[in-house]
Write a structure and sequence with these properties.
The complex is a heterodimer of chains A (157) and B (669). With 157 residues, chain A is of the alpha+beta class. Chain A is built from 6 helices and 5 strands; from the N terminus they run ββαββαβαααα. Chain A is globular and about 50 Å long. The chains are: A alpha+beta (157), B alpha+beta (669).
């Protein structure tokens, strides 16, 4: 049954007409044209689609449009106009990405982490990013970039 | 460059990559296929090979900026379509990107610079040697002219009459010096980077394929009535394995979720194949096929057997391909590792003139050797033919994990004769493995041996390879057979050292020529790593391949590798951050494969279906990685695969356990 679902995506009110069980990921990618959240597994096991739903890190591939109804969704595209969010700046400073495919998800998980823990230690980083798989093996730089992003967010140079 | 527009809710993606320079357009100077300048000051370079994360786009941009004496931000990159006649070999493989392209790209850009300088010198009537090019300007004394104002004059010169001088390495400003990051980094962190999965021309349909339920199975019967009734499903078609990849039943729909719902509603029965296949049995069969140990010059004092598993590529971007077949020809958009080869395969298979086959190259979300298979593209072509529209074939993660062309299993038996101090004086290495089904060239023990055997130490001996028929599709996986051979060799050497109480670094130093590149990097790694800390276990391994050398030292404690120190000599490093990244990435492959990731087969099926059960390492397993770049005068070497075999061996050895295979301490198969 196709229903109409209202979402707040990157600060804009959007509507999609889809069956209730449709994963939010495909609504974002195929209906709304937001290609930043990546399809990696479809079962919530890789983190490539990680986006914020009501401020928390969520997996749009296992979140249905019905569950997301009325939510505020932030994808990587909604983080900043031009890549100047502190997490993005840290990622650029440390040249984290290799193929880059998982990085929107890594970045969004980091944004969610820093919202609740402005100075995460290694254990907190591991816990928050453990389910964001990177096949290129950028983890050591991800870890450094999370810490750098925390500094930038706190206003340190 | 605006790539996305929206028409009536349908996502439209124009071809992400512009055409390469055709002939000389008005106001354009295009001395070769790689570099062109126009009279608006734009410098454009065509990147001939795909970027799968190895950073070739960054390297090509730096090479051109260096030789044209401009800033790296002044060079626009275009991605070449598949056209081996124009661009030469366009494959990403054998760690060739840097070593294969550095010469041609530098020469192409230097040719442009020399012609621009000659044009200025001609205009001023002064000797070329008195002119300099810098920051996009040619100067002579107080006179200066911008490149853009020389474009027409330069285009009129005959390149054959102008000598080309490369910028000497000691004058490099960017190559090996810049701290700048990857050229696509900004696009990546803003979500604007476009991969195969993001590239859909207007009106593209989406297909998912119901794939063989066990290895080698073929479709027996299809009941697609329920699938066709699913809203959004446009067509259902059976794929012939002879012409369309691995076979199966494709459900073509307007969107991915509709295609998935259609696939769920399909009723397919299968026949044939090997429904009883079991990877433990495969490993045992390889072990029983091991070649006999050759006659040794003395008593064999130590022998060990190592068993290696199947590995999947599992790139973060699952396999996908988009094709549009029309009466005029074929266009495909695909994250391929070999666009030129793919074009020829498609033309041959479809009986088309290659001129009517266009292969557009997207960024690839990882590759690791797994994106050379034309099968997914042939699936997309078959679907486009049925649908009469462009079709994206999307492999789900489950498809990707269970229907890959895997790294072959192998079993190794190593034997050694040692002297009184425990140092090996003779060795034998027998290997039983499978060929690579994706490339029949490898169905030859000598080819496999040449690819895998890079034993660098001064120990005479014999290496024998036995190939058994592959019971599953196999293909290239980072480092290919060197990943098998060197893992076994270095673990065996580590075991010999432990038995004799020899220091791991000292034993290797003793067996390497004093003036060798490998010994220099081993010394550099050892110096950087320092003494083994209390409570830590150390593993050491070296590798010489692709024109580069590396030594890796891994330090573990409490069952985890904590620190990896690598010293690498790649000749001149071109992009420093990229050099470190390749080593860091290979180290994580090593951590993953040593600590538990493997593909297993039970009852004819691959067991693993996602990252939930393919135990790839996560951030909590990431060691610190310290990369020392050792300068040398050697030519540019390859690096993409170099660090994997020694990192895996060093990390396995650092577990302190008796290593009997990969993963360590886990049943193989």
């Amino acid at each position: 049954m196709v229903g109409r679902y209202r979402l707040h995506v990157n600060g804009e009110r959007r509507e999609v007409d889809l069956p209730a069980e449709t994963p939010l990921l495909w609504a974002l990618r195929e209906q709304l044209g937001l290609l930043g959240p990546k399809y990696g597994c479809g079962v919530g096991a890789c983190g490539a689609c990680t986006s914020l739903v009501d401020g928390r890190a969520a997996r749009p591939c296992v979140t249905t449009v019905a569950e997301a109804r009325g939510s505020h969704v932030t994808t990587i595209e909604g983080l900043s106009e031009d890549g100047d969010h502190p997490v993005q700046r840290a990622w650029l400073e440390l040249d984290v990405a290799q193929c880059g495919y998982c990085q929107p998800g890594q970045i969004m998980s980091t944004v969610a982490l820093l919202a609740v823990d402005p100075d995460p230690d290694d254990a907190a980083i591991d816990a928050a990013l453990r389910d964001n798989v990177c096949r290129c093996g950028t983890y050591t730089r991800v870890r450094a970039a999370v810490k750098r992003a925390a500094e930038l967010k706190r206003g340190e140079r | 460059m605006k790539r996305r527009t929206f028409l009536g809710g349908v996502l439209v993606v124009s071809a992400p990559i512009a055409l390469p320079a055709s002939a000389e357009a008005a106001g354009e100077f295009a001395p070769n296929v790689f570099v062109r300048l126009d009279d608006r000051g734009r410098i454009t370079t065509t990147v001939p090979t795909p970027d799968c994360g190895q950073g070739v786009r960054t390297i090509v941009g730096l090479l051109v900026a260096e030789e044209l004496a401009v800033g790296p931000g002044d060079v626009r990159l275009e991605q070449a379509p598949g056209d081996a006649q124009r661009f030469g070999w366009q494959g990403v493989g054998n760690s060739y990107s840097a070593r294969h392209l550095t010469g041609p790209i530098r020469t192409a850009a230097a040719t442009a610079r020399c012609l621009l300088v000659a044009a200025a010198a001609g205009r001023w009537g002064v000797p070329v040697a008195e002119c300099t090019a810098r920051d996009g300007v040619v100067r002579h004394g107080r006179r200066a002219v911008r490149y853009r104002n020389l474009v027409r004059d330069a285009a009129a010169l005959d390149p054959a009459t102008v000598p080309v001088a490369l910028t000497p390495r000691e004058n490099w400003r960017l190559l090996g010096r810049t701290g700048a990051g990857r050229v696509d980094a900004k696009a990546i962190v803003t979500g604007k980077a476009r991969y195969g999965i993001d590239t859909r021309p207007a009106g593209t349909l989406v297909a998912v394929v119901s794939r063989p339920q066990w290895i080698g199975a073929v479709v027996d019967s299809v009941d697609d009535s329920a699938a066709r009734a699913v809203p959004g499903v446009v067509a259902v078609t059976t794929l012939d394995p002879a012409t369309s990849g691995q076979g199966g039943v494709a459900v073509i729909a307007r969107s991915m979720p509709e295609a998935l719902r259609g696939r769920e509603a399909l009723r397919v029965t299968w026949r044939g194949g090997t429904p009883d296949a079991d990877s433990r049995v495969w490993s045992a069969e390889l072990e029983s096929a091991l070649p006999a140990v050759p006659a040794a010059p003395g008593p064999v004092s130590f022998e060990a057997v190592y068993r290696l598993p199947l590995l999947a590529h599992a790139p973060m971007e699952p396999t996908n391909a988009t094709a549009h077949l029309t009466a005029d020809g074929l266009t495909v958009w695909v994250p391929t590792q070999d666009p030129g080869g793919l074009r020829n395969v498609l033309a041959g298979q479809l009986g088309l003139d290659p001129a009517r086959v266009r292969v557009e190259v997207t960024l690839a979300g990882g590759a690791f050797g797994g994106r050379g298979d034309p099968a997914p593209v042939l699936e997309a072509v078959a679907c486009s033919r049925v649908a009469g529209a462009p079709v994206s074939v999307m492999w789900t993660r489950d498809d990707d994990m269970r229907h890959d062309a895997y790294r072959p299993m192998s079993v190794h038996r190593l034997s050694a004769v040692v002297d009184g101090a425990g140092v090996p004086t003779w060795r034998a290495h027998g290997i039983a493995t499978w060929p690579l089904t994706l490339l029949p060239f490898f169905d030859n023990p000598e080819v496999v041996k040449a690819n895998g055997d890079h034993f660098p130490y001064a120990v005479p001996g014999k290496v024998d390879v036995v190939l058994r028929p592959a019971p599953v599709r196999t293909g290239f996986w980072r480092a290919v057979y060197a990943g098998h051979f060197q893992y076994a060799e270095e673990n065996f050497l580590s075991a010999l050292a432990r038995r004799a109480g020899l220091d791991q670094v000292d034993l290797r130093r003793r067996l390497l020529p004093a003036d060798s590149r490998l010994r220099r990097v081993l010394d550099a790694a050892a110096a950087r790593a320092g003494a083994v800390r209390s409570g830590f276990t150390r593993g050491v391994a070296c590798h010489d391949d692709y024109g580069s050398v590396i030594a890796v030292i891994a330090d573990s404690s409490e069952g985890r590798v904590r620190k990896v120190t690598a010293a690498v000599d790649v000749g001149p490093p071109l992009h420093l951050s990229g050099v470190r990244a390749q080593v860091e990435g290979a180290v994580m492959d090593a951590v993953s494969t040593v600590s538990g990731a493997q593909i297993t087969v039970r009852e004819g099926r691959v067991v693993q279906s996602s990252f939930a059960d393919y135990a790839w390492a996560r951030i909590d397993r990431a060691p610190d990685v310290d990369v020392v770049i050792v300068p040398s005068d050697a030519p540019v070497g390859g690096l993409g695969e170099l660090a994997y075999p020694p990192a895996a061996a060093a990390i396995a050895s650092a577990t302190g356990q008796t290593v009997t295979g990969m993963p360590v301490g886990v049943e193989v198969g």
